[in-house]
Amino acid sequence: MARNDDRRAVLADAGIRVLAQSGARGLTHRAVDAEAGTPRGTASNYFPTRDALIAELVSRIGERLTPDPELLASRATQKPTRALFATYIRDVIVRLSTDPDVSLALFELRLEAARRPSVAESLGAWRRQAFEGDVDFTSQAGLPGTRREIALFHYAIDGLMLDRLTVPIDPETPTDDIVEDLVTRLLA
């Protein structure tokens, strides 16, 4: 069978949905094939091991969460302010909220990383690289926020997304208001 990038993406997207819907224990090659609507054995042909499948899911999640380069370019001309920083944070929340399967799959992988060193290795490398990218972007854009503050935003966004995707403690407060409060308080 010829391997192609489109089929690989379809399988990875199916794996993300399986993770989101069934958790890490439900992530099997057979479940991915069923979700993708591909013949049995297709997923294992592309990803021969569970670790290879998970590594591909981490990569695909990264692709799906990557910001729109045109949007970033349009904002690059704006004066770096706390308000612009808040806009970037809102963009992150929108990307994480628009497709809840991606965020839920990411949370499932983080839980699985606590149990499986191979998952911790691939997911940890991706998370650290993304964090360093965020720190570099913030610095190069001249936006407010130190490395420590960027880390605090990561912690806060992770908690906010877990809250909003599961059982919100304060569902009446709009997410935008929470982001505004986070930016104001963390960059005081």
Residues in helices, as a percent range = over 70%
Total helices: the number is 10
The fraction of residues in strands falls at under 5%
Overall shape: elongated
Number of strands: 0
Largest sheet: none
Q: Predict the CATH topology of the domain at 58-186.
A: Tetracycline Repressor, domain 2
Distance between the termini: 57 Å
Structure summary:
The protein has 188 residues and is mostly helical. It has helices at residues 5-22, 29-36, 42-46, 50-65, 69-76, 82-98, 100-115, 117-141, 147-165, 175-186.
Can you give a write-up of this model?
The chain is mainly α and 188 residues long. It has a domain at 58-186: Tetracycline Repressor, domain 2 (Orthogonal Bundle), CATH 1.10.357.10. The protein is built from ten helices and no strands. It has helices at residues 5-22, 29-36, 42-46, 50-65, 69-76, 82-98, 100-115, 117-141, 147-165, 175-186. The protein is elongated and about 55 Å long. The mean pLDDT is 93.
Give the secondary structure arrangement, pairings included.
Elements: H1 5-22, H2 29-36, H3 42-46, H4 50-65, H5 69-76, H6 82-98, H7 100-115, H8 117-141, H9 147-165, H10 175-186
Helix pairs in contact: 1-2, 1-4, 1-7, 4-7, 4-8, 6-9, 6-10, 7-8, 8-9, 9-10
